[in-house]
Specification:
The structure holds two protein chains of two kinds.
Chain A lengths: L2 H31 L1 H17 L4 H5 L7 H11 L5 H13 L13 H36 L4 H15 L2 H15 L24 H8 L2 H38 L2 H8 L4 H31 L1 H6 L5 H10 L3 H29 L7
Helix pairs in contact in A: 1-15, 2-15, 6-7, 6-10, 6-12, 6-15, 7-10, 8-10, 9-10, 10-12, 11-12, 12-15, 14-15
Chain B lengths: L3 E14 L2 E14 L3 E6 L5 H9 L6 E10 L2 E2 L5 H7 L4 E4 L3 H4 L6 H12 L4 H14 L5 H4 L9 H12 L6 E5 L7 H18 L2 E6 L2 H7 L2 E6 L2 E6 L1 H6 L4 H9 L17 H8 L13 E9 L5 E10 L4 E5 L6 H8 L7 E6 L2 E2 L17 E4 L13 H12 L5 H14 L16 H13 L5 E5 L7 H18 L2 E6 L2 H7 L2 E6 L2 E7 H6 L4 H9 L6 H7 L1
Parallel strand pairs in B: 3-8, 3-9, 6-7, 7-8, 13-18, 13-19, 16-17, 17-18
Antiparallel strand pairs in B: 1-2, 1-4, 4-5, 9-10, 11-12, 11-14, 14-15, 19-20
Classes of the chains: A mainly alpha, B alpha/beta.
Amino acid sequence: MSAASDIRKRKELLELMTGLGATMVRAGRRLLSSLPALFGVLVFTFLLMRVLPGDPAVFFASGPNAGKEEIEQIRKQMGLNKSVPEQLVFYLSDIGHGNLGRSMMTGQPVLKDLRERLPASLELTFTALLIALVAAVPLGVLAALRPGSLVDHGVRMFCALGVCVPTFVSGLLLIYVFYYLLGFAPDPTGRIDVFTSLPPQRTGFLSIDFLLAGDIDGWWAACKQLILPAVSMALFVIAPLARITRASMLVSLGSDFVRTARSVGLSWRKVVVTYALRNAILPVITIAGIVFSTMLGANVLVEKVFSWPGVASYALDALLSSDYAPVQGFVLLMASVFVLVNLIVDICYGIADPRVSIE
Amino acid sequence: MSATLLRIDDLHVSFSTRRGMVEAVRGVTLTVGAGEMLGLVGESGSGKSVTGFATTRLLDAAGRVTAGKILFRGQDVTKLRGDDLRQLQGAAMSMIFQNPRAALNPIRAIGLQIADAILTHKRISKDAARAEALELLRAVQIRDPETRMNAYPHELSGGMCQRVMIAIAISCNPALLIADEPTTGLDVTTQKVVMDLLADIAAARGMATILITHDLGLAARYCRRIAVMERGRIVEEASPKALFGGPRHAYTRRLVAASPTAVSRIEDLVTEEEREGYAAIISKPRQELAAGTPPLLEVRKLAKRFDQGAAAVADFSMTMAGGESVGLVGESGSGKSTTSRMICRLIDPSEGDIVFDGQSIGHVAARDFHRSPFRKDIQMVFQDPNESLNPRFTAFDCIAHPLMRLDGLRGGDELRQRVNECAERVGLPLDLLPRFPHQLSGGQKARVGIARAIACRPRLLVLDEPTAALDVSVQAVVLQLLDRLRRENDIALLFVSHDLNVVRMLCDRTIVLRNGGIVEQGESRALFDNPKTDYTRKLVEAIPHFEAGPALAAAL
C-alpha cells in the first residue's frame, strides 16, 4: 500500500468520524425535541383511561360479594379517591422517578413486566420485518423489471392476498398446515417448549442468547417456534413494502441516470442493483420504519394465536381488566419506540442519501 | 473526406403509444466520417434525439427500429445483442445528455461513477480506475479534482455536472460521441465553455461527434456540416454557410429566419410571406408620453436576503415608463428572477421600496397583495408553460380565473366574451378553449399563459423567460405577439431572460445583473453593440451565432 493512498484512507476515515459525530449531535437534538410529544401522549393516555368505563377497584376486589368497605379500601390503596389532577401529578412524579406503577394482574412492577415481554415482541417483529423485506424487495424489483408481465401480475395477486387475509386467519392456516398436517412446526405455544432449559439471559432475544450460550439445539428450537408467527405477520406487510419497491424502482429505472449507466455499457447487475435499486430503496426505508412501529403494537392477534408472551397481548389483557398502569406503560413504551424507530430511519436515510441531513 | 464511421440508412423508428403506433423517425439517411462533427438540428418532435438514441441503442421499451440499418464500422448496430452491445456502448460510442444533473446518479460520488464506466471496459484495479477518473476530471478542467472526486452531483453546478458527464462519456475513448442538447438549460457563458471543451476534446482524441441541438447558431459555430430534421425526415444537409446563405427547403428557410441573430429585428423572425399582417402594426408610430408623466414603476434600493445567506439581490433601483419594455439579463444566480418576483409582489423584499403609479406597494406583504387594487395591474407570465398551468383547468378556466378573482366577473356571457376576446388577442383559436393543458402544444400553452396574464388588462407585464422552453419558430411568434400587445395596449414589459438576442430585439432598455447587483444598463442596441463592462462583453460574445451573419442577413 502506497503512502499516498494510506493518507487518503486516513483522511476519509477522519471525515467519516466527524460526519458521524455531527449526526449524533443532531440525533440527540431530535430526541430532545420529541419529549413534548411523549409528554402529551402520557397525559392523553392517562385521561383516556380515567374516562373509560370500568372501576378497577371493583374489578380487583376479592370477589363479587366484596363489601363496600373493601372496595373503598382498595380504592384508597390505589389512590383513586383523589381528584384526577392530583392523580396525574402523582403519576407524572412516579414516571419521573422511573416508576411505571404496579400491575394488579401480575402483581409485579409494570417496568419489570414490560422488560420481560418487550424482547419477545421485538424478536418477533424484527424477524417478521426481515422476512417481509427479504421477500418484498426482490418481488418488487422483479415486478418493476417486467411491468405488465406474468411476474408482475403474480406479485400483485400475492400482495392482495397477503393484505386480504387477516393475520390471525393466516396464522391459523399456517398452524393447520405446518403443525397439524405436516408436523414440521412445534406446537404453537410461546417462545420455547417447556422442556428446553433457557439460556442465561443477555439480550432477551432467545435466538441470540442460545447462540451466545453455544446451545445449537436450543437455538434451533427457538427458531422453529419463531418462524410461523413471524411469517404470518410478514405476510401482512409484504404488500405495502413490495408495492412501494415496485413503484420507486419503476421511477428509478426510467430515470436519466439509469439511461446514462446503460449508455456506457455497465453490466445489467450494476445498472439494476447499484444504480436503480440503491436509489429506489430510499422510500422503502421510510415505509419499513412505519411498518415496524405498526407491527410492534398491532401484532396482538398473532401473539394471541401463538400464545406469544409479548407486550401487546399483555396490554390487551390489562385493558380488559381495567388495569391502568400496564396500559399507560405500554402506550408510553410504544410512543418511545415510535420516536426511536423514526430517528433510526432518518439516520439510515441520511447515510443512504447524501442529499439529506436530518434536522 | 475521411473514412465513414457511421452510416444510417433509411432508418424508421416507431413508438407504441395508447393511440397506436407513432412513427417518430421516417427514413433518415446520414453518414458521419471519423473525427467529424456533425450538427443534427431540428425542433422538438423532429426525431433528432430518437435518431441519436436508436444509434446508441438507448430507446425506451416502447420504441422500436422498424426498418433501416445503422452501420457502425460496417456492423449493424440494430442487430447487436447482449455482450456485443455492451462492448459497443461506452467503449466505441457514448452519449451526453440534456439536463446533466439528472443524468448522474444522485447518491453516488462522481469519482465512483466515472470509475464504474472505466471498470466496465478495462480490466484494471480499482485504484488504477480511480487514478484514471482523476485524470479525466483534470481533462475536463474541473478545478480541485481530488476533492471533487468525492462530491455528489447536487454539490456541483449544472456546467460542472455536464463536464463530469463528458468525462464519463470519453472515459473509454469512444470513436463516436453523440451529444444530445448538451448545453440546453446552461447559461450562455457556461454553454460556450462546455462546448469549447467538448470540441477540443473531440479534436484532440479524434472522436467523431454528432451534436443534436435545436439551436441553429450553436450548430453553425461548431459543426462543418449540418443536417436539418423535420417530422422524422432530414430535409436539408449542408455546410453552415450554405444553410444560412441560401436555405433551399421551406422549413429550413423558416428555421433560419426564426433564429435570432445579432442584427435581426422582431419582424425578421418570420419568412417574408408571413410578414405582411405584422408590418401594418409596427409601422404605427407609438404615441409619445407627455413630458412630466410620472414613471409607471419606480424601484428604489431593493434588496433580498434569504435566511442568513448573502444577499440574493442588493441595491437594485430602476424606473419604467408606461408602455416601455425593459430587459433584465444575467446568468443563473444573478438574482433576476428574485427581482422580478419582488416587483410582482410574489415575494417580500428585505429592504427598499417599490412604487407603482405613484403609490408605494413594496410594504404590502406578498401574502396580502392579492387584495390590493394593483394586483390586476401587475401580472406575470412564467417560464414553463407546462408547469404554470393547472392541469385540471381547461384553457378557458385558466383565462377566466383571474377575471373572476380580480375583476369580479361571475360567469355568464360577459365572462365568456372577455375570455374569447383575450384568446383572440393572443391568437389562440377559440375551439381550443375547452381543452386541458396536456392537450395543447407548447406554443399554445404559452399563449394561454399570456392570455391569462393580460386578461385583467394589466399595465405592467413581468415575463420570466417566457420563451425558454419553446422552439425557435414558436418563440418568434410569441415574441411578435408580445411586441404587438405592447404597441397596441401600451403594456409595459419587464422581460427577464438569459437569451440576449431576444432581449436585444424586444426591449428598449436592458439591465445587466450579476450576483444580485446591476453591472450595466442602458439602451439595448448601444449596450449590446458596445458593452462597457467586461462582464457584459463576455455575455455578448458567448452568444452563438453564425459568424458571417450580418452579410448574409443583408443578402436575404
